[in-house]
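Structure (tokenized):
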């Protein structure tokens, strides 16, 4: 009986602390969500304030180890990641939209950067 109570407690505890996957961004009366394409974000929100792109390293399964360099650049190309920064105006947080393979992977909000 105590074992069953512990399992129920552990399940409830783990569900309460799962990360939220309902990130959205409102632009010009439209909603941007995870899974939207780069084209639809640009159409709905316009040109971002800043853009950045970088090459994310590729990992393989046994222990999620990094693919070594001779193979990383020839056989396994990197994952292109783009980040677009949107300044949403006074009183709003700055939004960063991260794309992987041309699709919104995450939307994060940061405090406004002071000039």
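Design, position by position:
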């Amino acid at each position: 009986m105590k074992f069953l109570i512990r399992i129920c407690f552990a399940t409830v505890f783990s569900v309460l602390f799962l990360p939220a996957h309902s990130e959205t961004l409102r632009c010009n009366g439209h909603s941007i969500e995870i899974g939207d394409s780069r084209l639809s974000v640009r159409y709905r929100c316009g040109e971002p304030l800043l853009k950045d792109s970088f090459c994310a390293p590729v990992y393989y399964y046994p222990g999620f180890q990094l693919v070594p360099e001779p193979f990383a650049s020839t056989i396994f190309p990197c994952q292109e990641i783009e980040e677009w920064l949107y300044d949403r105006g006074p009183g709003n947080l700055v939004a960063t939209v991260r794309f992987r393979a041309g699709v919104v992977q995450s939307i994060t909000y940061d405090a406004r950067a002071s000039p």
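Reviewer-requested clarification: The first helix runs from residue 2 to 16. Confidence is low (pLDDT under 50) at residues 6-22.
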